[in-house]
């Protein structure tokens, strides 16, 4: 048996979470892919199918469903192979054909002309197919991950092009979908090709700080394992190394200016337990052993999950020798969600989906999870609003991918808004009609002007007018979200 067949056998062993019928379909897809790509080779000389097999392997690693894995195997057959969409549809059904078509559509179109425009066109397509089925993006992430891992075989120009697109579009998208591990990997791979000198320097410079922090974590781990064992809590404690690109970005922040001692989470201590109750017990034990740092102390993302679904308790404590250390506490389930995000909604859930019609699917929890991703729908609606390429890119980049602040309603609902957002942006995010009733705003209980720049953690209360009042045109001078701008303009243009 050759190398590839051996890898495929291993893959089959790893999909034991699927039933036999699905496994047979996957075998069929593998045969299909081999025929479609016969005689094709990658730049490094490997047979082309080694690439689609790698993509499928990544999807299995993320424990994805049968449809996604098959789509991974077939994702390049229509574009590069000798098959057509109809062939895929006939052999593998509608879902697979939709996914393969989606991935094919968002392939990098290397057209002549302005490169910026090509990327934007891709982004538009990507957003449109995402709205149909989010698994398209997940297969695309797996594809991109493998392409980035083998980027060294392309020309330098292509390397930079791909790395830039990955850093500007795919990594932020992965973050927004809660796929933290994928985001970290994509960023580090891009970093290496976009800033090769900085990358090499950082690896050298960070060696000592990393290992120092690791030694520290080791000490803490011993004590905490004993403390938790005394309470008979089953626990896994590890050190989480910060990804290189994320470290580099933080080092470049004003106020940090390359000072490693100001980075408290270069290696964070991570505690995994079975239940939510145990998370809080663990937090208590941590604080009895190591005092929390006043003011920057605890973030409880278990009771207040981040909008992308992330849950965990973060606390910063005085570790051994007074060294500030971040500790993250979460359940195994939360950990899986944090690493795989949107992908984890499809993990293991395949059985539930089998043979169920689209209408019935609407009622399942899996679809309910998808509705959390309202921002995708919003992006789709902008497609029509913003015809101009550049403006579209600006809106998408700023609203969807800019650094987000977490803003709370008085009831504790969380909204994530781009940095620089004001109470008016918040009002529109809560409900588009609320913009007709804005009289004033309180932040953390104190009246503020409407152009006040909100900060993460702010609790915002909109003081409402009784009757509908046309939103002030002057607000256009300070709102930052596309949706707020649009609502204020629409309201004022309807007056005539
Ligand atoms: Mn591919």
Description:
The chain is globular, with a radius of gyration of 25 Å. The strands form three sheets. A five-stranded mixed sheet has the order 1-2-5-4-3. Helix 2 runs parallel beside helix 4 (66-74). The longest helix has 35 residues, at 196-230. With 496 residues, it is of the alpha+beta class. The protein has helices at 3-14, 20-36, 49-61, 66-74, 77-80, 85-105, 115-132, 135-149, 156-176, 180-194, 196-230, 244-251, 276-289, 332-340, 350-353, 358-361, 365-371, 374-385, 389-401, 423-430, 482-493, and strands at residues 236-241, 267-273, 298-300, 313-318, 324-331, 404-408, 414-418, 438-443, 446-448, 460-464. The chain starts with a helix and ends with a helix. A hairpin with a 2-residue loop joins strand 8 and strand 9 (446-448).
Quick gist of this model?
The chain is of the alpha+beta class and 496 residues long. The chain is built from 21 helices and ten strands.
Structure keywords:
496 residues, alpha+beta, five-stranded mixed β-sheet, three-stranded antiparallel β-sheet
Topology:
Elements: H1 3-14, H2 20-36, H3 49-61, H4 66-74, H5 77-80, H6 85-105, H7 115-132, H8 135-149, H9 156-176, H10 180-194, H11 196-230, E1 236-241, H12 244-251, E2 267-273, H13 276-289, E3 298-300, E4 313-318, E5 324-331, H14 332-340, H15 350-353, H16 358-361, H17 365-371, H18 374-385, H19 389-401, E6 404-408, E7 414-418, H20 423-430, E8 438-443, E9 446-448, E10 460-464, H21 482-493
Parallel strand pairs: 2-5
Antiparallel strand pairs: 1-2, 3-4, 4-5, 6-7, 8-9, 8-10
Helix pairs in contact: 1-3, 2-4, 3-4, 3-8, 4-6, 4-8, 6-7, 6-8, 7-18, 8-10, 9-10, 10-11, 11-13
Bound molecules: manganese (II) ion.
Manganese (II) ion is lined by residues 51, 75-76, 143.
